Amino acid sequence: MVLLGVKLRIHPLFLLAGLLSVFTGDLMLFLAATVAAVLHECAHAFAARRYGFALDKLVLMPYGAVIAGDISGIGKKQELAVLAAGPLANACTALFFAALWWLWPETYAYTDTAAYVSLSLFLVNLLPAYPLDGGRILHLALSRFGERRARLICRAVTMFVAAGVLAYFVRSCFSRPVWTALVFSVLLAAGAFGGARYSRLTFSRGKSFSRGVEERRVVIDAARTVQDALRYLTEERYLVLVLYAEGEYLGELTEEEYLAALSAGKYAEPLSECLPKL
Description:
Elements: E1 2-3, E2 6-10, H1 12-24, H2 27-50, E3 54-61, E4 64-70, H3 76-103, H4 108-124, H5 133-142, H6 147-172, H7 179-195, H8 206-211, E5 214-221, E6 237-245, E7 248-254, H9 255-263
Parallel strand pairs: 2-3, 5-6
Antiparallel strand pairs: 1-2, 3-4, 6-7
């Protein structure tokens, strides 16, 4: 099935969850959550398509929807817009229902579940925990300090949030257990430790080269560290560092050579040490 240009696939566990909701009397809540999740992911896909990127596969899972595709070469501002599109769609939906109630109060009885789910999905996705949108935005903001540091901080924050959700579940066991909180905490923990990727595909240049990318040449003191030059690295332009020492030209570092230094963790080393050895 194709929905708004996105291939839709239904996971078998999604059908099982729907069947269970019939027996538990939560079918309307299940359907409302499914529609809100699909709307959320389609908003991501629509925003990505505006920038020429394709998120073209959506899978309905028992805990929501997951969308996938290739965003190689996307810029930070563009990626932020794509990440924000999902929660924004849910917020707009919740506001729509609020306006509907204000104009026609009698509609509340028929739309309260959909409004509650939309607002909940908006708030939950703002949590700074991976793989939620809030966690991805946090990782995006921290990536300027290096992928490894960003990954470690995001993992710690995610585990902190997961622990808080788990504590809420334990507390609820003294009255009425909230099992969804337990499942949610497990999913967050899985996202922090191997269940999800932190990679933003930032510097996979295949797509950007096919579209064409401008070169950015930066003249910089060779004594500056690899960390110092990180500010010049962007997805929109191909970076070339032109190294000088006391007015003397030493050589050039291509983006691949600079990224190799970053991957090796040479943040404190001078750029001159990263020049290829002749």
